[in-house]
Design brief:
By secondary structure, this protein is mostly helical. Helices cover 53% and strands 0% of the residues. The relative contact order is 0.05.
Length: 66
């Protein structure tokens, strides 16, 4: 019975912290776009597909030992 005097206030503090974290997440826009990041993984990036691969310059190529 005496442990309830400690456990009940501790549980109320934990609940208050959880509510504050949820409030912060909602206010900061964490739940604005739930499907966008999932779709962005599946979409191709048009900019990277239009690039032409150049030959590496001599300064970046690995020199072979003689």
């Amino acid at each position: 019975m005496e442990s309830l005097y400690l456990l009940i206030p501790m549980s109320l503090v934990v609940i208050a912290v959880i509510i504050l974290i949820l409030y912060w997440a909602v206010k900061s826009g964490q739940f604005e776009d739930l499907e966008g990041p999932g779709h962005s993984i599946l979409m191709d990036d048009d900019v990277s597909s239009n690039r032409v691969m150049d030959k590496p310059s001599s300064s970046t190529s690995v020199k072979q030992k003689e």
